[in-house]
Amino acid sequence: MKPLLSHLFLTFLFFILHPIVTVSSPDNDSSTTATNAIDFIRTSCSATLYPDLCYTSLSGYANAIQQDPARLARTAIGVSLSKTRHMAVYVSNLSREADYGADPRASAALHDCFSNMGDAVDEIRGSLKQMRQLVAPGSESFRFQMGNVQTWMSAALTDEDTCTDGFEDVAEGPMKTDVCQRTGKVKKFTSNALALVNSYAEKGTN
């Protein structure tokens, strides 16, 4: 009886424990995939001017990005678009308030900055649309499309630079400091996105 009971007990343990092993395996695979995606983002961000900001702004999208450089660049452009759009709205609100202020140079700088940010939003939006329509890497059409994205993202960065340049003749004060600091951070997101676009374009055309 004892050998039989021992055999039945071992069989019982097998059927109890086997499902646990089966269920835990996908979790392990998922964890490995997420870790690989995180490592991919961190490594890719090292090629940007602001790697820490790049990593923190994109690591939350690791499940969507996986280890795909096109998705990485597209996501970075999307983040840049969101930041630039919010900045445009912020400057628009400030410019309306400045219309009633006593400093015409500040008012003019804000209106110009809003125009620059609006142009940047259009250029980044165009870049994102182009990235969503990309053909297979290596083709002439791919090079043309990526050339468009590089041109538009570079133009957006120039527009953001122009915004802060317009405040050079404005007297120092909280408003000037605030706008320049906020715009400076937006430029970092756009710069990082452009760097990732350039990296993907280089890999896709080689």
UniProtKB/TrEMBL annotation:
GO terms for molecular function: pectinesterase inhibitor activity. It holds the Pfam family PMEI. It comes from the Eukaryota. Keywords: Signal. The keyword Nuclease does not apply. The keyword Signal applies. Residues 1-24 form the signal peptide. Transmembrane segments: none annotated. Residues 36-196 form the Pectinesterase inhibitor domain. PANTHER family: PECTINESTERASE INHIBITOR-LIKE, PLANT INVERTASE_PECTIN METHYLESTERASE INHIBITOR SUPERFAMILY PROTEIN. Belongs to the PMEI family. This is 21 kDa protein. It comes from Theobroma cacao. The gene is LOC18609838.
